[in-house]
Specification:
Blueprint (H helix, E strand, L loop, with lengths): L8 E4 L4 H14 L4 E5 L12 E3 L5 H11 L3 E4 L5 H6 L1 H22 L2 E3 L2 E2 L23 H20 L3 E2 L1 E3 L1 E3 L12 H11 L2 E4 L7 E5 H13 L11 E2 L3 E3 L1 H9 L6 E4 L3 H9 L7 H7 L7 H24 L1
Parallel strand pairs: 1-2, 1-4, 2-3, 4-5, 5-7, 6-8, 8-12, 9-11, 10-14
Antiparallel strand pairs: 11-13
Length: 327
């Protein structure tokens, strides 16, 4: 494994919800010059903390050239179309999620670098055990996003077995953060609700009040990804698609936790049939015992800590966003 002082980290999808915080974390950990942030969007609108450039992961030659030129030792491949957005254009989601991953794995096989690929709770489906869902379980997802995540897990396994690529990944639950807007996922309500609570004291949720979902605060998710990539290979009986989890709650329970800090906050429910059907197809809780035993995974944020951190972060971010809008 590459020693920390020699790390050269390439991040794709760096302007997204995960990428925004991951870039800051690895830039602080390894130094800004050791990280190259890339996204299909122009970096003039999102870049900070470290060097950045525009990169379309569907351009195989550009991916290979960027990996080579930067002297990359690890790619955090985050470029993807998420669950609800994927249902709006399944063919575009498939191309982005599969062809982009294939191009990254090809480049990694050529230069010998590590790859981190996030999978998702969406890789499971309604026929998977719901509570808890074990590490090894039947995977029959009902969304194109879930289909690409299962296929991506298998593709990473293939590139490890066939070409020796050290590809590692996590099956994330819903992720909650304030640093970047949500990206079209089914769990977006758990981000939107905090903005609404502080701005309007009212929120209309697109899921039923009793929809229990597996969730994680973004700081835990970023730490899990970095810790997995740093784990010694001999500690891992497998590398790819570890279940990780932190907390489970319903929209009604989240609203009640917010009312502790925002008295009078009101929530209404207008379930969106598509997103409700996606949520209903996912497990209630992942069994992450393999991650805990193999590389010491342990979440730090429960529901109470997450609500406090989100309200504080959104509150601090709001004046900045308002100032940007005025300019």
């Amino acid at each position: 494994m590459t020693p920390p002082e020699a790390r050269r980290i390439l991040v794709t999808g760096a302007a997204g919800q995960i990428g925004t915080e991951l870039v800051s974390t690895v830039a602080e950990r390894y130094g800004p010059g050791a990280v190259l942030a890339t996204d299909v969007r122009d970096p003039a609108g999102w870049a900070h903390d470290c060097p950045a450039m525009q990169l379309n992961c569907l351009d195989a030659a550009a991916v290979r050239r960027t990996v080579d030129d930067f002297g990359t030792t690890a790619v955090f491949h985050l470029a993807a179309v998420l669950s609800a957005a994927g249902e709006a254009s399944p063919s575009a989601a498939y191309r982005t999620n599969m062809d982009g991953l294939l191009n990254v794995l090809e480049a990694a096989a050529a230069v010998g670098c590590q790859v981190f690929v996030p999978s998702s709770i969406a890789a499971f489906g309604p026929t998977s055990p719901r509570d808890p869902t074990p590490q090894a379980a039947l995977q029959r997802p009902t969304t194109i996003y879930g289909v690409t995540k299962v296929a991506g897990e298998l593709l990473c396994d293939y590139y490890h077995a066939r070409f020796g690529v050290d590809a590692r990944g996590l099956r994330f639950p819903g992720l909650i953060s304030y640093s970047a807007p949500p990206g079209g996922g089914t769990t977006d309500y758990a981000v939107e609700i905090f903005h609404a609570a502080l701005e309007d004291r009212r929120y209309t949720c697109f899921l039923r009040p009793d929809t229990r979902m597996d969730m994680m605060y973004m700081a835990d998710a970023i730490r899990a990804a970095v810790e997995l990539m740093d784990a010694p290979v001999e500690a891992l009986t497998h590398r790819n698609a570890f279940n990780v989890t932190a907390m489970q709650f319903t929209p009604a329970e989240l609203a009640e936790a917010i009312r502790v800090h925002v008295p009078g906050f009101e929530i209404e429910y207008d379930p969106d049939p598509l997103r409700q059907s996606i949520a209903d197809s996912w497990p209630d809780r992942l069994d992450d015992s393999e991650a805990r035993s193999q590389w010491g995974w342990q979440p730090e944020y429960d529901l109470s800590a997450t609500v406090s951190a989100m309200l504080d972060g959104v509150g601090r971010l709001a004046p900045v966003q308002a100032g940007s809008a005025r300019r």
